[in-house]
Specification:
By secondary structure, the chain is an alpha+beta fold. 52% of the residues lie in helices and 21% in strands.
Length: 535
């Protein structure tokens, strides 16, 4: 017989070896998965940067051809000064705008920086661009310049400019032709990507100033990368990929850039590192949980083996009895858990049945009264009991613990209310658009009662007796948590005033306060009830 001490030593060594192997293998796979996620994200931004380069080239080439036509027209008419007040020049620019999907505004300036013709207005107002950096650069000899982001004067769109120097017959500086371009292709490229919400595409000049960007707003048209590492790479590399730090952006991002050779422009494509690693993080959490479970199980098995090693000194019969007792204990625990689940479901079933009986009693009592207001009060109480009963019925039918799936629950609730108010006979459609959101029982009941009140009010007040209509219920996540909307296309608030003294209104406000939420009632081609609450 092997000594008990040697058996325990083998058990300890085996447990330690398995623990090191599990942690090492899992750590290796996690690292490989991390590198794969990062490489995949870098490759995606590199492909998008290349695509951005092609789109930008095509747009600038188009703008270049249009400006060349304008310059040839200026030379044909004898120079920029000869176009002052020319209706023909204005019509030419307008026609170019209509033929170009990218060009929003064309402008011709003379050698002094004064506007002589433009698409926006005729005759041209007195405007001088002599102080603009790009105009000074053209006067100094620059042939083409891609300007930074600007806010359009007419449609308030964010545009960027492309300008060309206009030479006279001797080749001297005679003015500047400009086209303001729409960066619409940025959105087109962004829409091609599955992570469009996190993707940021940009065009920058050699000074690091923004020309165009997908998330650009009017207050950020002067954005610059002059202090960023990326600005240094702009001037030293043709293309590259790197991870930005938080000092140059709101979040750490994977950025790929490509520098155009013909124009002093660099394009970028970037996604947050958090978005690139979102799937990896989910896998990491799951991996850690599984590893912990395995290690705990290994530790428990080791402890159990050590415990058994002490008992190996007893007879084989004692060991057999111990295993049998362990099996019986496991069976008892499983049975106890099963009994608890059955008992809990039976409680929900009985509560649901009791609520149905109560609702039926209320219905019988309502028949004794002829007063419509009394009958309505009984009906409203039945609706509230029905909504609570559906919650307990849902818990009885599903194995979701103490949570309610709002998509399933509201689908059944709408069916019950449609039948109760004769929606089909009245020609009223009741639609549902709900996310599969799970909430606990404590919040489910006041939420269900609030929505029941809103739908009941729509049935009772939104439509005339012979009027058909539609009631739409939506349940979605929002920035504040959960947003529930009940919308009808009926008579609006004129026929459905929010009476603060009514029981329904008091209940809705009380339930909203209980949920920590906020309710509103507005008129938007009908009545819109909106409840927002935290999750």
């Amino acid at each position: 017989m092997i000594p008990v001490r040697d058996v325990r030593t083998v058990l300890y060594a085996t447990a330690l070896l398995f623990a090191v192997a599990i942690i090492g293998m899992r750590g290796t796979f996690v690292w490989l998965e991390y590198r794969y996620a990062m490489n995949r994200a870098e490759a995606a931004t590199q492909d998008l940067a290349l695509l951005m380069e092609e789109y930008t080239k095509r747009t600038l080439e188009t703008g270049d051809l249009l400006l060349k036509d304008i310059i040839e027209y200026v030379a044909l008419k004898g120079g920029a000064d000869a176009l002052k007040g020319s209706r023909e020049a204005h019509d030419l620019l307008v026609d170019m705008t209509q033929r170009s999907s990218a060009g929003d505004l064309f402008l011709i300036m003379d050698r002094n920086g004064n506007a002589v013709s433009m698409t926006g207005a005729f005759p041209v107002a007195d405007m001088s661009f002599a102080d603009r950096r790009w105009f000074k650069a053209h006067r100094a000899g620059a042939d083409t310049i891609v300007g930074g982001a600007i806010l359009g004067q007419y449609n308030k769109e964010i545009l960027y400019t492309y300008t060309r120097r206009i030479p006279d017959v001797k080749g001297d500086f005679d003015g500047v032709a400009m086209v303001a371009l729409r960066p619409t292709f940025l959105q087109e490229v962004s829409n091609m990507n599955e992570n469009a919400g996190d993707l940021v595409l940009g065009i920058w000049d050699r000074d690091g100033s923004v020309i165009a960007r997908t998330d650009l707003t009017p207050d950020r048209t002067n954005a610059t990368l002059a202090r960023s590492r990326l600005f240094t790479d702009f001037t030293s590399q043709k293309a590259g990929t790197y991870r930005s730090d938080r000092t140059s952006d709101s979040a750490e991002r994977i950025v790929s850039f490509r520098r155009l050779e013909r124009w002093p422009v660099t394009v970028t494509a970037s996604i947050p590192v958090a978005a690139a690693l979102s799937v990896w993080w989910q896998g990491l959490y799951w991996s850690i949980a599984v590893t912990i479970i395995v290690l705990v199980a290994l530790a428990w098995l080791t402890w159990f083996g050590i415990r058994l090693s002490y008992r190996t000194e007893e007879t084989q019969r004692s060991l057999h009895d111990l295993n049998r007792e362990l099996g019986q204990a496991n069976d008892s625990l499983a049975k106890a858990l099963s009994d608890k689940v059955v008992l809990l479901k039976e409680i929900h079933h009985r509560v649901k049945n009791n609520l149905q009986v109560t609702s039926s009693l209320l219905q019988l009592q309502a028949r004794r009264f002829k007063d419509p207001d009394v009958k309505t009060a009984f009906q409203e109480t039945q609706d509230r009991l029905r909504s609570i009963g559906l919650i307990h019925d849902t818990l009885y039918r599903t194995d979701t613990g103490g949570t309610i799936n709002l998509q399933d629950y509201f689908g059944r609730l709408i069916g019950e209310l449609s039948a109760a108010y004769g929606a089909a006979a009245r020609g009223i459609e009741l639609d549902l658009d709900a996310d599969p959101i799970a909430i606990d029982l404590e919040k489910a009941i006041p939420l269900a009662l609030t929505v029941t009140e809103a739908i009941s009010n729509a049935f009772k007040h939104a439509f005339a007796p012979d009027q058909e209509g539609q009631i739409a219920v939506s349940v979605h996540r929002s920035d504040s948590g959960l947003e529930v909307t009940v919308r009808d296309n009926g008579r609006g608030l004129i026929g459905n005033k929010d009476d603060p003294s009514s029981l329904g209104t008091k209940l809705i406000r009380a339930f909203a306060a209980q949920l920590g939420g906020h309710v509103s009632l507005t008129s938007e081609n009908g009545t819109v009830f909106r409840l927002t609450m935290p999750l």
